[in-house]
């Protein structure tokens, strides 16, 4: 019984992190195509996609130097 509750809690945490990551992706300054790809990766591969986005995903706080 305790294992089932633990598994459910882990699943809920992963789901919440995926929702947060998708919201961050949507609000990023990246172009539409990379956003769609990242959302698909995070949605289809929840744990792997979340880690990949955290490591290599679009960063909304990047500032391009002025020309």
TrEMBL record:
InterPro entries recorded: CLS_N
Transmembrane feature ranges: 37-56
Entry keyword set: Cell membrane, Membrane, Transmembrane, Transmembrane helix
Cardiolipin synthase N-terminal domain location: 16-58
GO CC annotation, single: plasma membrane
Any matching Pfam family: PLDc_N
Domain of life, source organism: Bacteria
Membrane topology: Multi-pass membrane protein
Location in or out of the cell: Cell membrane
Main location: membrane
Protein name: PLDc_N domain-containing protein
């Amino acid at each position: 019984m305790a294992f089932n509750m633990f598994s459910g809690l882990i699943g809920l945490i992963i789901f919440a992190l995926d929702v947060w990551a998708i919201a961050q992706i949507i609000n990023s300054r990246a172009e539409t195509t990379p956003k769609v790809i990242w959302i698909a990766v995070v949605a289809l591969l929840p744990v792997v996609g979340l880690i990949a986005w955290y490591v290599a995903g679009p960063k909304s706080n990047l500032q391009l130097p002025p020309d």
